[in-house]
Amino acid sequence: MNKLSQLLQSLNRLLQWLAPKRAAGNGLGLGANSPINEARVHASAVGRESHNAADFLVTASRVMRQKVVDRARLLNSQKPSSQWRDVLILDELLGVLSKTNARSAQVAEMQVFLKVKDDEIAAALNVSARTVKREAAMARAWLKNERKGD
Predict the structure, then answer these.
(1) Among 65, 74, 98, 103, which residue's beta carbon has the most beta carbons within 10 A?
(2) What is the pTM of this model?
């Protein structure tokens, strides 16, 4: 089994594990059109087309982010809440961060939306785990600082 297939299986297990946790009390739902299931389908399709683990993880995290953000927009329009606004603010801030420090934004996106471990991110991005920790710390500090400005 190649690295990409292993990664796809790991992501599928991760999404199956995350589904009930994300759905519990936050309105993400687990129906056929839930963001979790849609991300799994998209990630599977992407996995077959990706040439390496980095492409796959980056794309899968973007898919999951977009699905969660789309759902947050919908739910926030129906019944505004700080939970959904926080998701939308995080999405906006990650977009800004990606323009100045793309790798930090990618690391944060993988950690937040896919719950990928540092060593897996390091392997996918072909950097050291220490670099991932540094990028994650930088992203957290930047996001915290920007959030204070709100």
Answers:
(1) 65
(2) 0.68
